[in-house]
């Protein structure tokens, strides 16, 4: 079996906050990858992945209608937005941190790679405006 | 006919430039969601300085952009920008209307979400517990700087039924701002759980402005058209609860299955039981289908009876923070940053300054990813050290920060640089204390006041 990061498999993510809870959603690109992450990306595995970042429990919920898993990370924001000393006090970047997780993938998915961002449009703007 | 509802604001500080595009596209209701959890804390600090404040300061800018269309009968405006002082916000709306020479408007104020002065009484009648820790209200590290219940759609529907053109509220569940006009227009019953769930889900999709239209997108984020002109979303809700999520045509951004599903789960715990004051919505029942360019159809949403409680959020003081940021370049950038953090903290300890909590981040190494970042032997070309601390009072927090300053010259790591203009004065930290309160203890105080302009 090969190992790939969730990002390489094309998984999307979005993170938000409620008090000292971080809600992190993980989106599969297709039903095949959804079936895989549903099996292997367990609450325990996510808890271990985040280590000291998550002091409380991790709960996992399934949203098969949008090919997604939703993770609720308790005690994960240094006391919550207005209390936290973290620069990312709302945990906005924890979605990206989740898709860094590496999982075992079957041969049929082993060739998946995340596309390379094309930001030529941004470079054009910068070239015009930055002296 | 579907009711067209737009999400013109997603937070306090969002851009009123969205409003013109939405009004041009034609919307029956423009809903402005201004209150994140910590926003009431900001507004509370405002009101401490000036009793006439406590609502979002950008409200007049939104009103100036929208009220001419409201006065012309093209749309109605609903917002929770009243914060902890909706009465003063309504006054601002009336003043704005006057200054624009507009008349014939009815402005409604919804109050009663503010529990600050009634907490002790409520606590005598019900056992209040911290929603996460289970801690009892008796141990609340008071006094409460604010305490607000998340009201539902009903008082807003009452205001619309009474003829309001502008409805200003304090804390209301975000999605309820959007559910209310749909309930009012379609005449849905308060126990029509599936339709209430559908309206709540649409509200949830619209409440965070650009986040349904290609904002904060993962995966192929760089492919979103004209991202500097990201539109805010529009929901067109039919009487059966089905809805179309779309955007103004003349704009950038994107509305697709992918952009919409990103928002569907945003800040949701259990998606099969999204708790709102009006209904328990099952977001996993929804069917989302791309129906052509920038059009997503939402159907089949199911709901269950609402719970007997409102969520309420209490806030308490939690000390003061300060922070310092310095940068290092190769060679030894990571080690220099680590050493500087240690030297700084040792100096603070030797100075006898009490610090209740330290936090150290190495930007360029693992500040954001923490333990998820794989350890490699790579030498980063540059590292920024950000140290933050919490002290009991602002003066101590400021004195801690001054211990970093002399290290520029008098500390071994070579080439320490400041980062632009760096961090400012200490700021007050606030703790949030979420709880549940029986609706019967809140509802009798909820009022709707109308004033004609």
Structure commentary:
The complex is a heterodimer of chains A (131) and B (453). Chain A has one domain (2-129). Chain A has helices spanning 31-40, 43-50, 94-98, 120-129; strands at 2-5, 12-18, 21-27, 58-63, 68-73, 102-105. In chain A, the strands form two sheets. Chain A has a four-stranded antiparallel β-sheet with strand order 2-3-5-4. A two-stranded antiparallel ribbon of chain A has the order 1-6. Chain A is flat and about 50 Å long. Chain A is an alpha+beta fold and 131 residues long. Chain A contains four helices and six strands. The mean pLDDT of chain A is 97. Chain B is an alpha+beta fold and 453 residues long. Chain B folds into two domains: 3-113 and 150-307, no CATH class; 315-432, 2-Layer Sandwich (Alpha-Beta Plaits). In chain B, the strands form three sheets. In chain B, strands 11-12-8-7-1-2-3-6-4-19 form a ten-stranded mixed β-sheet, with helices on both faces. In chain B, strands 5, 14, 15, 16, 17 and 18 form a six-stranded antiparallel β-sheet that branches. Chain B has a three-stranded antiparallel β-sheet with strand order 9-10-13, covered by helices on one side. Chain B has helices spanning 18-25, 39-49, 59-71, 86-99, 119-125, 154-161, 176-186, 193-206, 257-264, 333-350, 394-402; strands spanning 3-9, 29-32, 76-79, 106-111, 146-149, 166-169, 234-237, 243-246, 274-275, 280-282, 287-290, 296-299, 302-304, 309-329, 357-363, 382-391, 417-418, 427-438, 447-452. The mean pLDDT of chain B is 96. Chains A and B meet through strand 2, strand 3, strand 4, strand 5 and helix 3 of A and helix 9, strand 14, strand 15, strand 16 and strand 18 of B.
